[in-house]
Amino acid sequence: LLPVSGLPPSEVRSTVKAVRLLNHSRSIVVPTIRNRENIMSADNFTPSITAILAYEGGLSKNRADPGNWTGGKVGVGLLKGTKYGIAASSHPGLDIINLTLAEARAIYKAEYWDKVKGDLLPAGVDLVTADYAVNSGVSRSAKALQKVVGMAQDGRIGTDTVKAVILSDGKATIQKLCASRLSFLKALKTWATFKG
Q1: Which positions ≥6 away from 40 have C-beta within 8 Å?
Q2: pLDDT tens figures, 1-20
Q3: How many CB atoms lie within 10 A of CB 171?
């Protein structure tokens, strides 16, 4: 959908990645009317995180990427970098360089997947919502999903949001959420540098 000609920061790379994952992954099924009985995705954490990590790569210490700085802005704090998609800006006390894959998976589960209720969301929507949370924050991801399904945007995915997502068209929800995310990313100051 969007060509990637460089190595953009996780914020921008992630939108392209999520769309590619949805188009190419065989282990994650986007729900349709025919498979509504399989809409819950409690078993999707491992394939979703494996797919996300395939695009996140190793250590990046690009000085122009705000996510690589412990202060969340270029030149603010320490330049620790990003590894496996875990950024110094979100985890300033973490030893990014020595982060293991197992530690990264545990962070994804506790700080992102569980907070966006990944186990309760339809397959495909879970992946896009969790990846959005990793790169742009849990609250922003939740609010975007809530807006897409016509719910009040409080930044916390609860029972009513989950119900609305389940009743929505999965493919359309994913497309709208990715479009919302891309719109957000294009508004960032870093877009001109890292759009890919």
Answers
A1: 119, 120, 122
A2: 222 223 234 433 443 444 44
A3: 14
CA dihedral for 85, 91, 92, 94, sign (positive or negative)? negative
Q: What span, in angstroms and rounded, lies between the C-alpha atoms of 30 and 123? A: 5
Q: Where is average pLDDT lowest: 7-11, 103-107, 169-173? A: 7-11
| Contacts with 193 (C-beta within 8 Å, 6 or more apart), sequence order | 64
Global pTM?
0.75
- Sort 137 into a burial class: Cβ within 10 Å, 0-12 / 13-18 / 19+: middle
Give burial (CB, 10 Å; 0-12/13-18/19+) of 29. middle
**Top-ranked range on mean pLDDT: pick from 7-16, 53-62, 108-117:** 108-117
Tokens at 40, concatenated = 């819950």
